[in-house]
Amino acid sequence: MTNLIKVLYFARLKESLNYSTEDMDLPAGVKTIAQLKDHLAKRGEAWATLFNGQQSIRAAINHALVGNDAIIKSGDEVAFFPPVTGG
Amino acid sequence: MSVKVQTTDFDVGAEVAVMRLSSANIGALVSFVGQVRDFNDGDNVTSMFLEHYPGMTEKALSEIIAQAKAGWSIADATIIHRVGELKPQDQIVLVLVASVHRQDAFAACEFMMDQLKTNAPFWKKEQTQNGLRWVEAKASDEAARQRW
Q1: ipTM for the complex?
Q2: Which residues of chain B have a Cβ shorter than 8 Å from any chain A Cβ?
Q3: Which of A15, A66, B32, B89 is the most exposed place for a label (fewest CB within 10 A)?
Q4: Is residue A86 in some structural domain?
Q5: Which among B61, B90, B68, B94 is positioned nearest to B80, based on CA atoms?
Q6: CB-side exposure of B139: number of CA atoms within 13 Å?
Q7: Is residue A41 part of a domain?
Q8: What is the domain count for chain B?
Q9: What pLDDT shows up at residue A2?
């Protein structure tokens, strides 16, 4: 069974990864935002720098801000971005 | 209650007039306008680009209005936020709140700006004399949100 999700990256993340959106089959064992960050950190140096826990990265699931413990479900839209700076 | 995310400028006077005349029980109307500064962190800013997360942005701003309605007695509220390329002295954001008495409108307006600064998915990238850079989030904005 596949667990397809959509992952979006914004602002500084989008630039450093040269990536704005991807469809991903959620790997076995990846159920939370924290686990997805760990998974992404293994993709290479640029990814590790952003997702190794040293940088402040915020996450949203289906357009709502969530914490590291939030559960990801099949069909979810997950987004990663730096702390916001609007207003 | 309305939320707009747009590249074009807005007319504060026109927005105030529409809200003011929408109900005769409105006794107070408070507006906050944010504008682009020509300096930040010791550098001259010549322009900036505002990125956002279409879909989440509108939802986050609507949620901020819903929280303000739950916390204060307000008759109406509007948030307009611009995105894209902006220059110093351009208007970025308008928060407009109407209430029967002034206290609710003052407090709700400040609350909404504090929430917007920390929870709405906008990111500023500045052009300075030293090149392009992403604006860093400020701890003081997070502190301002947490006092509510």
Answers
A1: 0.94
A2: 34, 50-53, 55-56, 59-60, 81, 92-93, 113, 116-125, 134-137
A3: B89
A4: no
A5: B94
A6: 0
A7: yes
A8: 1
A9: 80
Q: Is the pLDDT of residue A1 over 70?
A: no
- pLDDT tens profile B55-101: 999 999 999 999 999 999 999 999 999 999 999 999 999 999 999 99
Taking a contact as any Cβ pair under 8 Å apart, which residues of chain A between 51 and 70 contact chain B? Answer: 56, 60, 63-65
> What is the per-residue pLDDT for A53?
84
- Measured between CB atoms, which of B34, B55, B123 is closest to A84? B123
Residue A77 is assigned to a structural domain of this protein: yes
Q: Which range marks the domain in which residue A34 is found?
A: 4-81
Residue-wise pLDDT for A77-86, tens only, equals 999 999 999 9
Q: How far is CA B12 from CA A21, A37, B48, B74, B108, in A?
A: 36, 42, 22, 19, 18
For chains A and B, CB pairs below 8 A equal: 72
In a domain, A13, yes or no: yes
Tell me, what CATH number does A52's domain have?
Answer: 3.10.20.30
Name every residue whose Cβ is closer than 8 Å to that of residue B41 and which is 6 or more positions away in sequence.
none
Tokens coding B42: 């010791």
Cβ <8 Å between A85 and B116: no
Closest CB to B134 among A12, A56, A86: A12
For A78, nearest residue in chain B (alpha carbons): B56
